[in-house]
Structure formats: structure tokens, C-alpha cells
Amino acid sequence: MAASLLSRAAAAAALRGAARPHLLARFPLPKETPLPPLLLLLLLLTATLPAVGRVGWAALAAGHAGGYGCRAPALAVGAFGIAVRCNATSSSSAVSESAGVHALPRTEPVVSAEWLHANLKDPDVKVLDASWYMPAEQRNPLQEYQVAHIPGALFFDVDGISDRTSSLPHMLPSEKAFSAAVSALGIYNKDGIVVYDGKGLFSAARVWWMFRVFGHDKVWVLDGGLPQWRTSGYDVESSASSDAILKASAAGEAIEKVYQGQSVGSFTFGAKLQPHLIWSLDQVKENIKTQAHQLIDARSKPRFDGAVPEPRKGIRSGHVPGSKCVPFPQVEILHFSIL
User: Fold this and answer.
1) What is the DSSP string of 128-148?
2) Nearest to 98 by CA among 235, 1, 234
3) How far apart are the two ends of the chain, measured CA to CA in Å?
4) Which pLDDT score, from 0 to 100, does residue 134 have?
5) Contact indicator for 164, 255 with CB cutoff of 8 Å
6) Pick from 92, 130, 324, 133: which is nearest to 209 by CA?
7) How far is residue 190's CA from residue 182's CA, in Å, rounded to a whole number?
8) pLDDT at 188
9) What is the CA radius of gyration of the chain?
10) Other CB atoms within 10 Å distance of the CB of residue 152
11) What region, left, alpha or beta, does residue 99 occupy, with left being phi > 0 and alpha being psi -120 to 50 degrees?
12) Residue 228 φ then ψ, to 5°
């Protein structure tokens, strides 16, 4: 076990060392500042899905990230990215791979495929397939889930579990709507949640953030996602159970009922919005004037420069004034793996 933990620590150190030059080239950090998995995970979530207006990208308040290896961070996230500066500590708990969800270290936002395999049958561990793809990729995440997914995993519809009153894609739903959808999936507040996606580490970061925004901190991302799970030699289910499909459908129906003002019954999961994790469009605009916080844009450099069109029609190219580019494809290396 000691060798395994040592190996994982060495791999993490190698990743952070390799990622550092890309970060420092765009966003100077103190030399003593390591790159915790949380930072890499946040860069992923800022680059994958759009969020504008009342529920811009996640913003961590000072001190909030202390449990993930950052002590007193000064950071904010606007509509297009995040800003991070932290005096970090690398304290992490050495926990047995089969210690269970209640013994999971809160110092890391990710778990390994080995840990999940050892704890897959724990009734308090819920696994979510949160695969999502850019429209141009023409991939159907629900169909792919039905073809192959981690045994027992539920499907989390990123498109469906969103604000039905907004014309913008993937806006956060209300507390009640999120509670209704997650309850329909059969998830309780006591559950530990492990999220993965089909690319390795892409849209899972968004769903991880959503649960944290709604007050659930017992949530982790599967390192390397489904590709790493399969590479590790673990089984996948090639057909979804009728119960899982019904739950995915029920989640969509529940959120629709909430927005239509219909009754949805009792909840097993109660969401509580954490406003300090969100910036509004007005806050982003004000920060452009004051420059009190540094915004980081985690999209690719060509998109940041406005050299290529945005994936969605009708969205202007370029970036928020004053933001800096830290493109996640250059930071998130080693085939979408953090540990």
C-alpha cells in the first residue's frame, strides 16, 4: 500500500511539474506554489461549458479551498474563467483504497480507478456518468452510456439538468429544480458521489462543481474517467438497466415539473446554493474596471485570441478584457489524468 501511495504521489508531482511552465507563462505564481489537483480540475470546468449572467463560472471564496490543499487563496471566477493564487500546502491523507466513502480524504477532489473499484458496491457511493460533448462532435452521451458505462453508474444529463427559463445553455437550475432532479436519480445527501465522463476529464468537472455549488461537498471526480477505468482492466456494463434509464428520464421530468409549478413530491436530496461560489455578470463587469481579481480564461489560445470562431453560433470571439489565458489542453496533460 505504501508503494502504491508513493507511486501516486510521484505521478501527481510529475504532473504538477510538467504543468507549471504552461501556467507561469501566462499567469505568474510564487515559486513555492505547487499545483494541486483542484487547480487543474477548476481549469477543466472553466473551459468546458458556458455560463454567463447570474451564474457565471464558479468562484472560490478566500479560505474555501483549504480542504483541497490551498491555504487562504485569493481567487475569483468570472464568465469565462478562473483566477487563482494560493499559498498551498500539500497535506493529504493516506487512506486505504477500500476505506469507504466516509474515510475519503477531503484534501483531493479526485479518486483513482482502483479506489472506486474497491468501493463500487458501497451503498453510500453513487457513481454518475456525466459525459457531455461539444455540438460539433456529434456524439450522443446517453447512447454511449447505454453502450458502455461503469457498473451501477447513473446517467447525469448535463443538458437536461439546467435552468429551463434561460435561453443560454447549461445555466444552473434553481435549488428546488436541482433537488428534484438529483432526488429522482435516487441520490441522498448522505451519499458520496463519484463523477466521470467518457473523455477522461472533461464535463465531469462541471458536474462536480454543480454539486459543490449546491452545498454537497462529498463529491469527487474519477481520475482519468471511463478511459482510465477500462485501461485498468475493470468491467463495464454494455447495457443500461431499465431502472437507470427510468431514473434519468425521471430526473428530466422532475426538473420540468418544478419550472411548470407542478408538485414533485418529497426530496431525498436537498440543495442549498452557496452564493460565494458564483459570480454574476455585473460582478465580472465591475472587476473589469477595478481589476481587483485576476480572471483566467481556460479555453484554447486561438479561442482566447479570437482567431477561430466559437463552437456555438452567435457568440462573439475573443475574451473578457483583462483576463489571462491558461489553456487547459496544455495544463491538463497525461491523457486527462491528474493523479
Assistant:
1) EE-----GGG---HHHHHHHS
2) 1
3) 16
4) 85
5) yes
6) 130
7) 13
8) 98
9) 19
10) 13
11) alpha
12) -70, -35
User: What angle, 0 to 180 degrees and rounded to 10, lies between the N-to-C axes of helices 37-48 and 2-26?
Assistant: 50
Grid cell 453560433 in the structure block, residue: 313
How far apart CA 309 and CA 191 sit, in angstroms, is 41
CA distance 51 to 170: 7
Provide the pairing of β-strand 154-155 with 110-111. Answer: unpaired
Distance of alpha carbon 95 from alpha carbon 92, whole angstroms: 9
- Please list the pLDDT of the chain residue by residue as tens digits (339 residues): 333 333 334 434 444 444 445 445 544 544 444 445 555 555 555 544 443 332 333 333 333 333 343 433 333 333 323 333 333 333 333 344 555 555 565 667 899 999 999 999 999 999 999 999 988 889 999 999 999 999 999 999 999 999 999 988 889 999 999 999 999 999 999 999 999 999 988 899 999 999 999 999 999 999 999 999 999 999 999 876 778 889 999 999 999 999 999 999 899 999 999 999 988 899 999 999 999 999 989 888 999 999 998 888 888 899 999 999 988 777 655 445 666
Q: Which own/partner contact pairs does 94-98 have at CB distance under 8 Å and 24+ positions apart?
A: 94/5, 96/1, 97/1, 97/4
Collapsing DSSP states into helix, strand and coil, what is residue 71?
strand
Domains of the chain, each with CATH number or no CATH: 2-91+275-331 (no CATH), 105-259 (3.40.250.10)
Distances (CA, A) of 83 to 60, 294, 298, 335: 9, 5, 10, 24
The three grid cell numbers given for residue 102, joined into one nine-digit string: 466516509
Rounded Cα–Cα distance for residues 223 and 195 (Å): 9
Q: Are 160 and 168 in contact (CB under 8 A)?
A: no
Cell of 187: 441520490
Q: Which three cell numbers stand for residue 283?
A: 460582478
